[in-house]
Amino acid sequence: MIYSVKGTITVKELGFAVIECGGVGYGCRTSYNTVSQLGDIGSEAKLYTYLYVREDIVELFGFATLQELSCFKLLISVSGVGPKAATAILSDITPERFALLVASGDSKAFTKTKGIGAKTAQRLVLELKDKISSESISGSISSDAAALASIPAGEASSSVSEALEALMVLGYTQGETAPILGKLDPSLSTQELIKETLKLMAAKNMR
Predict the structure, then answer these.
(1) Could you give all domains of the chain from N- to C-terminal order, each with its CATH number?
(2) pTM for this predicted structure
(3) How buried is residue 153: exposed, middle or buried, by Cβ count under 10 Å (0-12/13-18/19+)?
(4) What angle do CA 200, 70, 58 make, to 5 degrees?
(5) How far apart are CA 35 and CA 13, in angstroms?
(6) Which of 65, 92, 130, 147 sits between 20 and 30 A of 30, alpha carbons compared?
């Protein structure tokens, strides 16, 4: 299993990048969002990877963040959504917005991606909401009250609830995110809460 690749960027194109590590160039299919975060050719970069293997194809996919990789894995688990469609979706939608759309059940937003029809978008949201309940959350959240157990009483607004669920779609745990959400203004929108939480978590990890 190739968890990640770190090295020099030798090729950088829309949806594709090559990272050279120890004389070996790893070609990675990726999203436009990840490509936009890469530096110039010759600079160093790190991509978190997923090796997609089928009978007639073996491809390596790479993403700038673990959150985008997590979204990619969720997307390709949906029936009818392959890696090409998954990277197309992630080229149009950031991981934060992806999590928000799934958590809020907004299937229409996914139809803006070329090749994603209404039926596929609806199935995507339905299947991922089920996965969030059974896998991502792993039964640790049986109700909104349980999900927000560590957030001070009175602050568990619907926006906070949606933000917590969206962050868990990205692979974060309740223990990581709930204490931070509890310190933010509950009147903020769901998207603002997600952004602020990720920003504070990133600052904490840099210490």
Answers:
(1) 4-63 (2.40.50.140), 68-136 (1.10.150.20), 144-205 (1.10.8)
(2) 0.72
(3) exposed
(4) 145
(5) 7
(6) 130
